């Protein structure tokens, strides 16, 4: 019995295997999901930061008419600032230095004329220039990022700025991907005419790597005994198991039966979608098992459309991952299935809107058509006609 794509998504959303959190070094944190609040440990900038190389003066002296300022000393970034007590002098000061007490404005070298041991200043100098004042960007204690945020370039920078040498993140599930099928041979092998290379393993691994998950790869033949024995160990030693192939109606499609024999509770088998109709999902304790249809486009689509949203939720990711695009041509699809239409994407140069053009392909076994595609446009099952210009969600490849 087929269930709808929405029903399948809802069933998965109710699953709550607990994969916990872990503490990782900052250098390992990129791409992971933050599970603590990132707070500013100091004001930012932490001191009145000089923003240009030049000199600093007490503006009062300039306002009183002084135009030549002898240099008292030079201060670089990293030096503890010494107060400017003699307002008739200037301090040569470098970008990144802390503005000395007594100095109120900075004039950059390009606007100065050096002579002897000092500098002539132009007309029009203003007070308070080229100073990045303490606390202007962030106040000490401010909340900069909250749990659930994906750690990207910006977060890495602020974590480092605020002294987080270690970060608490969502732990990743121990994961196995298993290719099933007697027709499959290793990538390095020379296949016989009736054999193919097990490409799905590598494709699916790349999708999961998007979340930092590094799965172990396996190949099992369509032999019940071997499948039972190996799957029993793999299911017990992993928290996420993804199989490709062996879930349809064939005489050698043993996967669903054996998983259930092993105590994996079936959540659903068969989703009203194309591609990916034979998708199987089950659970044993904190282990989630997905039986993906073997056709390469189906297994990729099921991973992008079903497994990844589930994983993002289980890893407590709060950021939505939604892209929308407009169809460039009308399309008819009569079956009551959610159609994941392969499309190529380009932005409209005037509006900037993403435009989706259907990729011609020969069905879900035509893996090469992915080369000409950028994603799947999700067209709802309740409709048969889709007009040019209509906007739908895209699963990006
Ligand atoms: N009588 C029916 N037959 C089929 C149905 C159906 O509803 N009734 N559904 C079709 C659909 S849709 C799909 S999708 C496939 C899914 O079948 P399986 O999940 O059982 O997959 P296999 O039969 O093992 O393989 C399908 C196809 O994909 C190739 N494959 C498998 N694994 C890999 C891999 N790791 N790398 C590359 N290619 C792989 C395999 O050689 C087959 O060509 O069932 C239809 N049949
Ligand atoms: O649904 Mo199958 O996944 O089209 O080839």
Structure in words:
By secondary structure, the protein is α/β, with parallel strands linked by helices. It folds into four domains: 5-19 and 172-314, Molybdenum Cofactor Biosythetic Enzyme, Chain A, CATH 3.40.980; 23-44 and 137-170, Molybdopterin biosynthesis moea protein, domain 2 (Alpha-Beta Complex), CATH 3.90.105.10; 49-132, Molybdopterin biosynthesis moeA protein, domain 3; 323-396, MoeA, C-terminal, domain IV (Beta-clip, Beta Barrel). The chain has seven helices and 28 strands. The chain has helices spanning 5-13, 59-63, 153-161, 199-209, 224-237, 255-261, 296-314; strands spanning 21-25, 38-39, 49-50, 54-57, 68-75, 90-93, 105-108, 113-115, 118-120, 131-132, 143-145, 166-170, 175-180, 184-185, 196-197, 216-220, 240-244, 265-269, 273-274, 280-284, 287-292, 323-327, 331-332, 338-347, 354-358, 375-379, 385-386, 391-396. The strands form eight sheets. A six-stranded mixed sheet has the order 7-4-6-5-9-8. A six-stranded mixed sheet has the order 16-13-17-21-20-18, with helices on both faces. Strands 22-25-24-26-28 form a five-stranded mixed beta barrel. Helix 1 packs parallel to helix 7 (296-314) and helix 5 crosses helix 6. 34% of the residues are buried. The structure holds ligand LQZAQKY5 and molybdate ion. Residues 179, 181, 183-184, 196, 198-201, 244-250, 253, 275, 277-278, 293-296, 298, 364-365 line the site of ligand LQZAQKY5. Molybdate ion binds at residues 274-277, 293, 295, 298, 364.
């Amino acid at each position: 019995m087929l269930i709808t794509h929405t029903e399948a998504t809802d069933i998965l959303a109710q699953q709550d295997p607990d994969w916990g959190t872990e503490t990782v070094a900052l250098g390992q944190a990129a791409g992971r999901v933050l599970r603590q609040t990132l707070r500013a440990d100091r004001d930012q900038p932490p001191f009145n930061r000089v923003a240009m190389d030049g000199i600093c003066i007490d503006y009062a002296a300039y306002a009183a008419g002084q135009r030549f300022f002898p240099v008292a000393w030079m201060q670089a970034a990293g030096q503890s600032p010494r107060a400017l007590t003699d307002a008739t002098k200037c301090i040569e000061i470098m970008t990144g230095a802390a503005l000395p007490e007594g100095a109120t404005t900075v004039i950059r070298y390009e606007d100065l004329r050096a002579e002897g041991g000092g500098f002539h200043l132009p007309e029009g100098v203003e007070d308070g220039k080229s100073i990045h004042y303490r606390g202007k960007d962030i106040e000490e204690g401010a909340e900069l990022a909250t749990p659930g945020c994906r750690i990207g370039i910006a977060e890495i920078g602020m974590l480092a700025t605020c002294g987080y040498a270690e970060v608490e993140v969502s732990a990743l599930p121990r994961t196995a991907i298993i290719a099933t099928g007697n027709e499959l041979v290793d990538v390095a092998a020379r296949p016989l005419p009736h054999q193919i290379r097990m490409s799905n393993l590598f494709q699916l691994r790349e999708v999961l790597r998007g979340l930092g998950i590094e799965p172990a790869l396996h190949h099992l033949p369509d032999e019940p005994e071997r499948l039972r024995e190996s799957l029993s160990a793999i299911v017990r030693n992993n928290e996420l198991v993804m199989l490709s192939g062996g879930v349809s109606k064939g005489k050698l499609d043993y996967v669903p039966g054996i998983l259930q024999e092993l105590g994996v509770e079936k959540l659903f088998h068969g989703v009203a979608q194309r591609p990916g109709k034979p998708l199987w999902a089950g659970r044993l304790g904190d282990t989630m098992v997905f039986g993906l249809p073997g056709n390469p486009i189906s297994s990729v689509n099921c991973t992008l459309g079903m497994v990844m949203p589930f994983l993002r939720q289980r890893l407590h990711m709060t950021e939505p991952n939604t892209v929308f695009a407009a169809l460039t041509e009308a399309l008819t699809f009569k079956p009551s299935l959610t159609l994941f239409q392969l499309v190529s994407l380009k932005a409209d140069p005037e509006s900037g809107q993403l435009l989706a053009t259907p990729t011609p392909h020969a069905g879900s076994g035509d893996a090469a058509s992915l080369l000409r595609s950028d994603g799947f446009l999700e067209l709802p099952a309740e409709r048969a006609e889709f007009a040019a210009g209509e906007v739908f969600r895209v699963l990006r490849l």
